[in-house]
Amino acid sequence: MAKKTIISFVLLLLTGSFAWANEPQKPFKGYLYNSEYDVYIRMNLYDQDIIIPGQELFGQLPGYLSKNGTSYCWLFVTADVSNPKSAQLQVSNDYGSEDFTAKLTQEDDSTYVLQHLGGSVLKVPKNGKWQKLPNTLKFKKK
Prior knowledge:
142 residues; 8-stranded antiparallel barrel; globular
């Protein structure tokens, strides 16, 4: 009886390991950070279930871009992940007054590039003024 239990346990462990190993990668889920501009992205472009802390009225979204020390953010309104290494984004500020399109590309396991494609200027508050961000930003996955 003990032998059957041990064999069943080992088979259960192996089955679980194979299921985990075969789970598809989700590169567009998680937290990305750019230390140069102190901005970050929180995202789940697959399930689109991100809630912005303190701004729950927007409901669940694919993600957002924000700057540390501020509540201002750019909302990912729509996200298309039809390519496994890049995503097309429609982005709006939290007032709804400005928007732009962007492409988020995975370069390797931990490096991502956000490229501004068109629309409003990507900017964040810094010391009471607006800081314009470059059209191409590199992020590291944390």
